Amino acid sequence: MYMSGRAGEPRERLPVRGADGDVAGATDLARHTFAVVEGTLAHEATLGVVRGGHIVGTRNDTQTAFIADTVAITGRCDRIPVSPDRVEDRFVFVCEKSDVEREQGDGVHVADPDLSTLAGGDTAHRQLADTRSDKQSATREYHRLRIYCDFDGTIVREDVGDRFFSTFSGPEMWNDNASFMAGDITIDEVFTRYTDRMRGITPEHVDTWSAQFTVEPGFVDFVHWCAAQEYPLSIVSDGLDAYILPILLAASVDVPVYANRLVYREGGRCIVRRPWADEFCARCGTCKRNRMLTLTPDDDIIVLIGDGFSDFCAAQYADIVFARDALETYCQRENISFRRFSSFDNIRAQLTALADRKRIRKPRRAALARADVWAGE
Fold it and tell me: What whole-number distance in Å separates Cα of residue 224 and Cα of residue 236?
């Protein structure tokens, strides 16, 4: 769609029409300033943001905007001589669906756009470039999904880790857990407190204890569906391999597992090792973010499925987040787009519908977050 006006003088409202239908109109508000009236779009020659729900970011002669929170706009402002004494600034727009699209239907929450990134220097510039690249990639084949799934509270509805430590370390573990959640002690310290009280633990003992837990209905079918679709599935957990592996074995599930390791010592003692930790993080045993970024090729789509605290960080870097319980609350608070799920059958149905409608793409928020990690920011 095209919007044009004469630079340097007030203009009356001009009609604007594009391939997608009529737009409200355009008014030259000031020199090099154009806007669709009724608050859907504005363009300014200088860097700025129009607030009040009408979102616009500009940098030099390039702009990205969100019309009614549903359509991403990019364009370029060109000065076009239309007569010997008349020059028009013509803004050419390309419309496309964006990650802020509001989907109708139960269970979908899409975050509001981040105005601060649009108004902020190089970050705004990167976001504009990403919007343009999104348009170019829209006609390409959708890339493969890579799915990363939490275990405790997700694959098994109960938090098996909490049950494990309350059984073998005693009820004092809840005080330790509260100190950890409050930030008073690190993940290594809380694991040390747990295991210091554990006695008489053997692999056979843990295997027998783990047999009381079963995976969620639909999970095994979900594993088979992922394999049929060639969507690599990995389990990323802040729990322990000691109970995760026997539970999966009982369900005949064979997928990669990234979890903390319970190491058995003489005399029934044990310690927890963290082979997938981030050396700079004291909050998570397994760094799910690092696993996702390390294992996922640039062009693939990251899907995260989770429910709790250990998924909070990873949710900021995933392209598609399936959340419930504490993770759902966190995503709402932090303005992270997510999809609510009730079962693995529900997740499969949602992913199938997205793929069928060609609606799977990378949101700029997650792509920028991942880029910052690789850049060392």
Answer: 18
- What are the distances in angstroms from CA 70 to CA 2, 117, 177? 19, 18, 42
pTM of the model: 0.65
Do β-strands 71-83 and 86-97 pair in parallel, antiparallel, or remain unpaired?
A: antiparallel
pLDDT in tens, 239-262: 999 999 999 999 999 999 999 999
Q: For residue range 99-141, what is the model confidence (pLDDT) as tens digits? A: 333 333 345 655 544 433 333 434 433 443 444 444 444 434 4
SS3 sequence, 264-287? ECHHHCEEEECCCCCCCCCCCCCC
3-class DSSP state for residue 96?
strand
**How many C-beta atoms surround the C-beta of residue 182 within 10 A?**
8
Angstrom distance (rounded) from CA 250 to CA 213: 10
CA distances from 71 to 55, 192, 200 (A): 11, 51, 61
Structure tokens at 319: 């392209």
Which element (helix H / strand E) includes 206?
Answer: helix 203-210
Alpha-carbon distance of 223 to 227, in angstroms, equals 6
Q: Which residue has the tokens 């905007």?
A: 65
Query: Are 257 and 245 in contact, with CB atoms under 8 Å apart?
Result: yes
Q: Which two three-digit tokens encode residue 133?
A: 């690249």
The count of other CB atoms within 10 Å of the CB of residue 56 is: 23
Q: What are the DSSP calls for 323-359, one per residue? A: E-HHHHHHHHHHT--EEE-SSHHHHHHHHHHHHHTT-
- What does the alpha-carbon distance between residue 348 and residue 358 come to, in Å, rounded to a whole number? 15
54 in Cβ contact with 115 (< 8 Å) = no
